[in-house]
Amino acid sequence: MILCASPNPKEMHNTISTLEYGAKAKCIVRGPHTTIKGDDSSSSDMMLGSRIMTT
Q: Domain limits at 20?
């Protein structure tokens, strides 16, 4: 990930927000992806839909 920060004091709020976002994004850990065997039609759509419905 590349973050863009400005040295301009007027943009300090945006720069701080960007750095905070980068710090949070750095902590994201993604596990291995496994494919669901069976129906090939939109299995990822079904998984996404079930995740949306449960949250």
A: 9-54
Return d(Cα 28, Cα 26) in angstroms, integer: 6
pLDDT value for 21: 93
Residues of the chain with pLDDT under 50: 54-55
Domain assignment present for 3: no
Residue 33 vs residues 29, 30, 36: alpha-carbon distances, Å: 12, 9, 10
Q: Which amino acid is at 27?
A: C
Query: pTM of the full predicted structure?
Result: 0.49
Q: Which two tokens stand for residue 40?
A: 């090939």
